[in-house]
Amino acid sequence: MNVCKVDTPKTIIHIGPPKTGTTTVQEKVLANLSSICFLGKPWWNPDVPYDKCVGLHRAIDSVTKADLSSYDEVAAKQALADWLAHAPNAQRQPDGTFLPRVLSEERLCFTDNVGFDEIARRLAVLFPSAEIVYVKRDPVSGLRSFYRWLYARAWVDSSFSGWLEKMISQPTNDWQDVAIRCFDWHLIENAYGAHFSTVRSAEFAQLHQDSSQFLQHLFRLNPAELAELQGEADQPLNVSQNRAISELHRAAKKSIRLWNKLPFHKIDEKPEYLGDTPMWKTLEAPLRGISWGNKKLSISQADKEKIIRYYAPRNSVQPANHAGKADRPATQPDR
Asked: Is the peptide bond before 17 cis (omega within 30 degrees of 0)?
């Protein structure tokens, strides 16, 4: 069945970053594999008591959401122990090894409350022998996709150029601005490499070129079961859309927020695109071919060059995968 004992299977921690196929991999692949244990979220662990799943999910959230004065390390460790005590045994492979348990959480790349190094330190206390994996995406397309996601949610109103300039020239710890650090591979490698012996990455482009190889490289999954899901990752979720669809989403989000200010029953505002639901897929279908107003969401050549210049001094140096603690680089502070 699933993974479980603390001292047998290893844990693979997938840290995102945003707009690198995280939602697609979670929903289309990891959630459909019975051979692994997917940590934390209740709907992926039907054999574990709901309250134990919620407890662990909140503990993982606190790793990035709690600041230095409010993070409760003891409570987080207890939540993990409670979850493990109820989780099924690990599935043993023919060679005698155990399949891993997997923690996949995009928020582990969000540095709005604490920096990468502190996030990595907290995770290392909870999962001292874990492997860290993440997906690299070209920062130009990654930032553009992240901006469109924010625009469709009505969190930003400026053009891409304005948003980019603000992030680069006036960086803040607001969660809408942390994207600039999410694509800094050298920063990620340094921070996580200082606390974990293995930091492994895959290229975003490979997800749609050869999804099986991509997933096998990242998660060391059961090849036979993975073959049954061939093509699932080719159906991306939570993707950026054109201007017309983005405006439809913005209107819906703003309407929900306005309604929730009234003294009536509140409507849950999900963080995902509304278009991932069947009703919204139907509503937006006529808008998919419309190119109206796309210039507002476009990226200029000057923007591209600005992004390339920003990351060039750091991401041009490719750190090797960390095979042991002796290979760990010194950490550097978040920008």
From this structure: yes
Q: Does 271 reside within a domain?
A: yes
Handedness of CA 11, 176, 214, 26 (dihedral sign): positive
Q: Are strands 101-104 and 199-203 parallel, antiparallel or unpaired?
A: unpaired
> What would the pLDDT profile of 53-95 be if each residue is shown by its tens digit?
999 999 999 999 999 999 999 999 999 999 989 887 767 777 7
Q: Is residue 4 part of a domain?
A: no
SS3 131: strand
Structure tokens at 13: 């921690």
Nearest CA among 4, 15, 8 for reference residue 38: 4
Q: Which helix (H) or strand (E) holds 199?
A: strand 199-203
The HSE-up count of residue 229 (CA atoms within 13 Å, CB side) is: 28
Give the pair of three-digit tokens for residue 323: 């095979």
User: Cβ distance 148 to 240 under 8 Å?
Assistant: yes
Residue 201 bridge partners (DSSP): 134
> How far apart are alpha carbons 187 and 164 in whole angstroms?
19
**For residues 298 and 295, what is the distance between their CA atoms, to the nearest angstrom?**
5
| pLDDT 10s digits, 184-193 | 999 999 999 9
Q: Are residues 284 and 208 in the same domain?
A: no
Report the CATH number at residue 102: 3.40.50
Asked if residue 281 and residue 193 are part of one domain, the reply reads no
Report residue 276 CA to chain centroid gap. Answer: 17
Domain presence at residue 334: no
Report the predicted TM-score, pTM, of the whole model to 2 decimal places: 0.83
Task: Kindly give the interhelix angle for 185-193 and 116-126, rounded to the nearest 10 degrees.
Answer: 40
